[in-house]
Specification:
With 429 residues, the chain is an alpha+beta fold. The chain has 2 domains: 6-199 and 378-428, Zn peptidases (Aminopeptidase, 3-Layer(aba) Sandwich); 210-337, Alpha-Beta Plaits, CATH 3.30.70. The chain is built from 10 helices and 18 strands. It has helices at 6-15, 17-28, 42-54, 138-157, 180-188, 235-256, 307-324, 352-365, 380-386, 410-428; strands at 34-35, 38-39, 58-62, 88-93, 102-107, 127-129, 132-134, 166-171, 195-197, 205-220, 271-277, 292-301, 332-337, 345-346, 371-377, 391-393, 398-399, 407-409. The chain has a 6-stranded mixed sheet, sandwiched between helices. Strands 10, 11, 12, 13, 14 and 15 form a 6-stranded mixed sheet that branches. Helix 2 packs across helix 4, helix 4 (138-157) crosses helix 10 and helix 8 (352-365) crosses helix 10. The longest helix is centred in the middle third of the chain and has 22 residues, at 235-256. The termini are close together. The model has no long low-confidence stretch (mean pLDDT 94).
Length: 429
């Protein structure tokens, strides 16, 4: 086998720098917004599929709902639609045998871009400024996706001959508590001895992720015009009390939970309220007291939390508040789950793959890696529990994720490519 040193890897990445950045800019310029139940991933996936075929590797494309019995799986999220060609792309580089396999995985879908809040460029017109590449999806997650693709591509160009299989995949429908794309690939059988999920981590190596419970509170009463019946309870006013109780819930939830990978004060479990709505289906909002108000919420949890365990504590908290608050008794109160439980996951720091990846990180970034827990939820549990793959998260630094002027650090993309290449070379043999 041709010897590929770290110096050769660095020179090869430097030589292809412009091509790499142009490629990343190309996939950023293709809008691949996820807007449930639909998504616009088709065009970017066709581009990535064709690029993988040009590398000479076996490529498999498939819709998530094509997989047998996937809709009966506990991790399947109902209500998504793939009829407009939202296909996963999986590229396989078969090894010669007797080597360990690896998966590099990322998602191609992005959250919708509100152009009016962008001050530096436009969402789908990539712009380079001060070493940063701006554009929707630059950081979440097309930057990591590009690093993974080019790591495999450059290794092939250098004449590397792996003994273990190398799989690169671009999946659909991760955003908005998705996961069906990741689930489809695992059930399709694309599972390996180790995996790197390329979510943005600011160069941290994460061996765990948070779980997320998503739900909705409904307060229902009687709609009316206040000047006809002045004593009609208003759920809009009452929802402010619910918001105060959620602040109590957050402190209470934090007091009950701890985890050895989440010890910094800024790693406490958060509760977010993200939508208040009094609209009744498609009817216009009446200019008076609404019949009901919906408040949407998220509560995060550490690895090890089970769904039933959470709802026992959560429901007991709210039952106590309802019994003690006379104003809330004036309304019908419903607190129900939305989406599905995005499960947390963790693996051992002592895993051989973690140590080897950390060493390659040191050599390529010239800094000591921080190994810890991701302060966000994602599909990590599907890789770990469904695919039975030891999986870490390692991606670039960036900012303004899910908002205007999203960016990724170009230097990180290049260093990540070198890190992925060095790891693959040693891991796969």
């Amino acid at each position: 086998m041709k010897d590929i040193s770290l110096e050769i890897i660095r020179k090869a990445v430097d030589y292809r720098e412009k091509d790499i950045i142009d490629w990343l800019a190309e996939i950023i310029s293709i809008p691949s917004e996820n807007h449930p139940p639909y998504g616009d991933e088709k065009e970017v996936q066709l581009f990535i599929s064709n690029e993988c075929l040009r590398n000479g590797f076996k490529v498999d494309t498939f819709l998530p709902d094509e997989i047998n019995e996937i809709k009966e799986h506990p991790s399947w999220l109902d209500g998504r639609n793939y009829s407009d060609g939202r296909k996963n792309v999986v590229s396989v580089w078969k090894g010669s045998g007797n080597g360990k396999s690896v998966l590099l995985s990322g998602h191609c879908d992005v959250v919708p871009a509100e152009e009016e809040i962008w001050k530096i460029g436009k969402p789908y017109e990539p712009l380079i400024k001060d070493g940063k590449l701006y554009g929707r999806g630059a950081c979440d997650q097309k930057g990591g996706l590009a690093a993974a693709f080019w790591a495999v591509k450059i290794l092939e160009e250098l004449g590397y001959e792996p003994r273990g299989d190398i799989i690169f995949e671009s999946i659909v429908d991760e955003e908005f508590a998705g996961g069906n794309g990741t689930l489809a690939s695992r059930l399709r059988g694309y599972n390996t001895d180790f995996a790197i999920l390329t979510e943005p981590t600011k160069r941290n190596i994460y061996i765990s992720s948070l779980g997320a419970f998503l739900g909705e509170v409904f307060l229902s009463g009687k709609n009316n015009l206040a000047f006809f019946e002045k004593n009609t309870p208003n759920p809009v006013k009452a929802i402010s009390k619910i918001i105060e109780y959620f602040e109590e819930w957050e402190k209470y939830w934090q007091s009950l939970n701890s985890h050895h990978l989440y010890t910094n004060k800024d790693q406490k479990l958060m509760v977010e309220l993200y939508e208040i709505c009094s609209k009744n289906d498609d009817c216009p909002i009446q200019m008076g007291i609404p019949q009901k108000v919906k408040l949407s919420w998220i509560t995060w949890c550490y690895p090890g939390m089970q769904e039933q365990e959470f709802y026992t504590v959560f429901n007991n908290f709210w039952n106590e508040k309802l019994q003690s608050d006379s104003n809330l008794k004036l309304f019908d109160f419903i607190n129900k789950p939305a989406f599905h439980f995005v499960r947390p996951w963790e693996m051992s720091e002592k895993s051989r793959g973690v140590g080897e990846l950390a060493e390659e990180f040191r050599l390529n970034f010239n800094e000591e890696p921080n190994i810890g827990g991701a302060p966000f939820s994602c599909d990590l549990a599907i890789y770990g529990d469904v695919g039975n793959i030891p999986t870490v998260i390692l991606g670039p630094e960036g900012g303004n994720i899910h908002t205007g002027d999203e960016w990724v650090l170009i230097k990180d993309i290049l260093n990540l490519i070198g890190t992925y290449m060095s790891f693959i070379k040693n891991w796969c043999g």
